């Protein structure tokens, strides 16, 4: 038996979102609530087996960060910096005024600056070693997203990048909460970022059979829990949460948007990419998160599911949600709108879950017209469902068999 | 400004996105925020643009647009 631990809530004081659903919290919430998919033909993917994606619309990195700096930052880092600045401002902090030594950064990422790596490979093949940029490695490294955000914000506490594939963003939020619980820092900038929509990366995903092949109708391709789903739609984005100890927020007169009250993680130890058929890993993670929060499945009002729109993943997760939560929770997968932003997904969805609690509304699952008959769940579709959400969970499953679950509650 | 100095200036503005207001003929690259990696990157771009081969260390962060132009002229580039 694990030792008893005091319950601990980490207050979410700030949110930052740079996703296919828009730049900024309000733009995101409007689009997510509309239930309209962001997927469209992607000129950069022309000729790839899957030539559509969900990109962040109108992201002008030069205007937002400055051209000179941007030239040395891979796109996943650019997205993260903008989302982190939003979140910090939303929390009411000015990085010029805080004690940076007490601020941590924990961000998830998987594929790093794959564009830099590809360009370096191309330069080496065509021009020899002297053509390879010295910026290739610092732009490619996955951990640079935490390092560069720390530089941008002057955050000198602990920092790290979590790499649990598509669960990375949720893992980051869970670990950030532990840093606060341990007293290692007072503020943590937590989340995830991914921007790997290159022909090589997308072709690799397509060759795995992970992606939807609905190339004639990209806008209908991401359809979590629908009987006609056929794979996920690759996306990019960044989601950042500012977490602080609740007592500290009260003391400074800050606003609490929602509270991260529980976190659980578990591993399938089954197969590199296929989820365990019985959903044992994600079930263990979710039950651990609920126990960490001192709650049970019956307490849960809303679940923001991983639900990527793959035939196998959705049914495994959906059955697991029914087993653990019963039939009362309102389930949604916001990936119907955003597509699947890989390592950023768990953080973006934690932010959406916090908003569902704050706004007492569960956003719909896009393109869900006929629920998979294998599932017995109340999946919100068509329009947002008003609901007094007090306890919500967000689940994440990653290649490698990584599973993570977060429990969020009202303040 | 010579034609060569203009071309180097244009590279700094268009490719490296240096803000025009901070760039003068006497501004050292280091003052523009160029660290050792960006200096190597700049010599890479100059190599391609002018068909020369700058050795590592030939271009430094204390140099200016004028100095870079002089260096290129010594390599046979027309001013």
Q: Briefly note the structural class of the backbone of chain B.
A: mainly alpha
Strand composition percent of chain A = 15-25%
Gyration radius over CA of chain B: 11 Å
Q: Which homologous superfamily in CATH is the superfamily of chain A? A: Thiolase/Chalcone synthase
Give the tally of structural domains of chain A: 1
Beginning-to-end CA distance, first to last residue of chain B = 10 Å
The CATH topology name of chain B reads Non-ribosomal Peptide Synthetase Peptidyl Carrier Protein, Chain A
Low-confidence runs of at least 5 consecutive residues of chain A = none
| General form of chain A | globular
CATH architecture heading of chain A: 3-Layer(aba) Sandwich
H/E element sequence of chain A = EEHEEHHHEHHHEHEHEHEHEHEHHEEEEE
What share of the residues of chain A lie within helices? Answer: 25-40%
Going by CATH, the homologous superfamily of chain B would be: ACP-like
Task: Tell me what you see in this structure.
- The complex is a heterodimer of chains A (411) and B (79).
- Helices cover 35% and strands 20% of the residues of chain A.
- With 411 residues, chain A is of the alpha/beta class.
- Chain A has a single domain (10-409), classed as Thiolase/Chalcone synthase (Peroxisomal Thiolase, Chain A, domain 1, 3-Layer(aba) Sandwich), CATH 3.40.47.10.
- In chain A, strands 1, 2, 5, 6, 7, 8, 9, 10, 11, 13, 15 and 16 form a 12-stranded mixed beta sheet that branches.
- In chain A, a hairpin with a 2-residue loop joins strand 1 (10-19) and strand 2 (22-23).
- The longest helix of chain A is centred in the N-terminal third of the chain and has 16 residues, at 75-90.
- Chain A is globular and about 60 Å long.
- Chain A starts with 9 loop residues before the first strand and ends with a strand.
- In chain A, 60% of the residues are buried.
- Chain B has 79 residues and is mainly α.
- Chain B has a single domain (3-74), classed as Orthogonal Bundle (Non-ribosomal Peptide Synthetase Peptidyl Carrier Protein, Chain A).
- Chain B is built from 3 helices and no strands.
- The radius of gyration of chain B is 11 Å and the shape is globular.
- In chain B, 24% of the residues are buried.
- The mean pLDDT of chain B is 94.
- The A-B interface holds A 62, 66-68, 70-72, 130-131, 133-135, 138 and B 15-19, 32-33, 36-38, 40-41, 44, 47, 53.
């Amino acid at each position: 038996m694990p030792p008893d631990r005091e319950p601990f809530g980490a207050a979410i004081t700030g949110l930052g979102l740079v996703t296919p659903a828009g730049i900024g919290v309000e733009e995101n919430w409007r689009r997510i609530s509309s239930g309209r998919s962001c997927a469209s033909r992607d000129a950069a993917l022309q000729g790839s087996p899957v030539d559509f994606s969900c990109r962040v619309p109108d992201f002008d990195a030069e205007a937002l960060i400055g051209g000179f700096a941007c030239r040395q930052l891979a796109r996943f880092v650019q997205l993260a910096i903008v989302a982190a600045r939003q979140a910090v401002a939303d929390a009411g902090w000015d990085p010029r005024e805080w004690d940076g030594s007490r601020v941590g950064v924990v961000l998830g990422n998987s594929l790093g600056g794959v564009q830099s790596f590809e360009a370096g490979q191309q330069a080496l093949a065509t021009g020899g070693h002297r053509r390879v940029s010295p910026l290739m490695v610092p732009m490619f490294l996955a951990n640079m997203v935490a390092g560069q955000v720390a530089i941008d914000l002057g955050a000198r506490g602990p920092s790290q990048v979590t790499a649990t594939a598509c669960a990375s963003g949720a893992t980051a939020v869970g670990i950030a909460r532990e840093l606060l619980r341990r007293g290692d820092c007072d503020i943590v900038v937590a989340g995830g970022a991914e921007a790997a929509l290159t022909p090589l990366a997308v072709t690799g995903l397509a060759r795995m059979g992970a992606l939807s092949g609905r190339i004639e109708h990209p806008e209908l391709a991401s359809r979590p829990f629908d009987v006609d789903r056929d794979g996920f739609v690759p996306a990019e984005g960044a989601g950042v949460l500012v977490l602080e100890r609740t007592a500290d927020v009260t003391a400074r007169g800050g606003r609490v948007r929602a509270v991260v009250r529980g976190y659980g993680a578990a591993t399938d130890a089954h197969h590199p990419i296929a989820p365990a058929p019985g959903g044992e890993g994600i079930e263990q993670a979710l039950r651990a998160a609920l126990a960490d929060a001192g709650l049970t499945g019956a307490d849960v009002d809303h679940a923001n599911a991983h639900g990527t729109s793959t035939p196998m993943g959705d049914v495994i997760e959906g059955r697991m949600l029914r087993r653990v939560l019963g039939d009362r929770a309102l389930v949604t997968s916001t990936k119907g709108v955003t597509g699947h932003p890989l390592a950023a997904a768990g953080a973006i969805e934690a932010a959406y879950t916090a908003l569902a609690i704050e706004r007492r509304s569960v956003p719909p699952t896009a393109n869900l017209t006929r629920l998979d008959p294998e599932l017995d769940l109340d999946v919100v579709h068509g329009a947002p469902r008003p609901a007094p959400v007090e306890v919500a969970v967000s689940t994440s499953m990653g290649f490698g068999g990584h599973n993570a679950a977060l429990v969020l509650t009202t303040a | 400004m010579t034609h060569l100095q203009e071309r180097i200036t244009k590279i700094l503005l268009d490719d490296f996105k240096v803000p025009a207001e901070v760039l003068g003929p006497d501004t050292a690259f280091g003052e523009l925020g160029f660290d050792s990696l960006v200096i190597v990157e700049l010599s890479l771009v100059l190599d391609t643009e002018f068909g020369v081969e700058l050795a590592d260390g030939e271009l430094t962060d204390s140099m200016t647009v004028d100095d870079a132009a002089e260096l290129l002229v010594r390599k046979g580039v027309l001013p």
